[in-house]
Amino acid sequence: MKKIYTTFLAITAVSLAANTQQLPNVGFEGSWSDCTPWTSNDNTKTQGQNPEGWCISHVIGTNGTGAKVVGNKVDGYNSSTGIQLTQPETGMGSLKSNVPAYITLGTTWSTSKASIFPAKIGDSDGGTFGGMEFSNRPDALSFYYKRSRGTDKPDEKSSVIAYCWKGSWSQADVPGCITISSTPAKVTMVDRDRCVLGYDMTGTQGGAVTNNGGVLISKIEQYITTNQSEWTNATYEFEYKTSDTPEKINVIISAGDYFAGADAVGKDNELIIDDVKLLYFSRLSNLTINGTTVNGFNPDTYEYAIDAALPEASGIAYTLKGNSGSAKATVTIDKDNNKATITVTNAQGADIDGNNTHTYTLNFKAAEEPVREGIKYDGSLSVQLGDGEPFSTEASVWIKQDEWPNATLSLYDFSLGDDMQIGDIIVDVICTGQDDGGLELNGEVKHLSLLDGMITANVTVNATQKNRKLEAKIDVIWLMEGTDEGETLPIYVIFN
């Protein structure tokens, strides 16, 4: 195995420099090389092989006794290479134990001290230290697996552990080799898995733990309990604890119960894995329109027919999938086509389908044209707010003739510019015939509610209609204090 006291996998780090958002050798299709299991007494013998960038928990034993291969290359998921992790029995006579089988980005290690008289194995411990340099915030870990159990401990669960951190932890006096009737050599171990994860060290081997600015940023701790004879996908999301940027990552996938100790290791328990990779979500986990969840919403469905009119952008709310905070979304409103799109992008890496951008399209019903009654007059509107400069805009006014001499003048969707929609001004008027054949229309409405009740106004209309042309003077007196006696602000409106 590889020594890593200050820097892990120098050779691998060079090859990953341009692709630090992903794990090395995702499909294990890269080169495999002989493994030299790390021990605290400087082992130089090889045992088994490791895929490039990864370390399998092969053990070298002691004095030629107890060496075991726990991982082998097998056919993978739609590929030529996967990893078969199998937990064997090792030792001799009454000094036997089962070996945990796992793969990691860090360095695997184990220790125990056996005695001949009486014949027993004690002070067992092991796990992983170190990991890979890494500076992104992934959302999940995904892989494919098959799983089977032997008859020894068939209820032992398989483990999926991953974590990102910055800084480091060091533990003094950790024994890192297997001995018979002697004391194992001890080292200061940097970034031991239990230390990074903040687990209780009671019952484990080693001395005092020192935190050297270490911060656990995110983690996964999940377990597989069912056997699978066919390739099955497992996807587990990271739980984020801080918003920090990581410096390192480790992934551990074990055939057995990784943190349960030596007594829990079941002989012949097996896990086959392939396509181990990080995911960076660029999808939504929830989508609402005006507070109501979109019917049939699914993160993997990207187009919806909405039985409602197109809202403003503020009426569309969503939740991004994942906990990393690395994805971003933009909302685009297409009023001409009654359509909205939400584009989710994750610049840090790819989602499970290999893409880093997904677009959700919402097709809304065309807005129904409001019912307008009467004769429509198209023209221009001059609007002056108090002593301000008047501005002009196109507008339409409707005149609905009731039983003579009554009529109704309506100016719909009156506004003070694009950013201030006032509402509908509707005034009952009295018609008076003129000698020239025209009509004069006069009316008044008190305390008209506009702008969703935020404006109360008195409105006076003086208009003339002749030869199918309409001129109207509409004075909107804004009651600033809501009463006729309070301060007012006139809005002068002239329609031609």
What this model shows, in words?
There is one protein chain. With 496 residues, this protein is mainly beta. 2% of the residues lie in helices and 54% in strands. The chain has two helices and 35 strands. Strands 3, 8, 11, 13, 15, 16, 18 and 19 form an eight-stranded antiparallel sheet that branches. A hairpin with a 4-residue loop joins strand 9 and strand 10. The chain is rod-shaped. It starts with 9 loop residues before the first helix and ends with a strand. The N terminus is likely disordered.
How are the SSEs ordered, and which strands pair?
Blueprint: H1 10-16, E1 32-34, E2 49-51, E3 55-56, E4 71-76, E5 79-86, E6 89-92, E7 95-98, E8 102-104, E9 107-115, E10 120-129, E11 132-133, E12 140-148, E13 158-175, E14 178-180, E15 186-190, H2 193-197, E16 209-224, E17 228-237, E18 239-240, E19 248-254, E20 270-279, E21 284-289, E22 292-293, E23 303-309, E24 316-320, E25 327-334, E26 339-346, E27 357-365, E28 375-385, E29 391-401, E30 406-415, E31 421-433, E32 439-450, E33 455-466, E34 469-479, E35 488-495
Parallel strand pairs: 9-14, 23-27
Antiparallel strand pairs: 1-2, 3-8, 4-5, 5-20, 6-7, 8-19, 9-10, 11-19, 12-17, 12-20, 13-15, 13-16, 13-19, 16-18, 21-22, 21-24, 25-26, 26-27, 28-29, 28-35, 29-30, 30-31, 31-32, 32-33, 33-34, 34-35
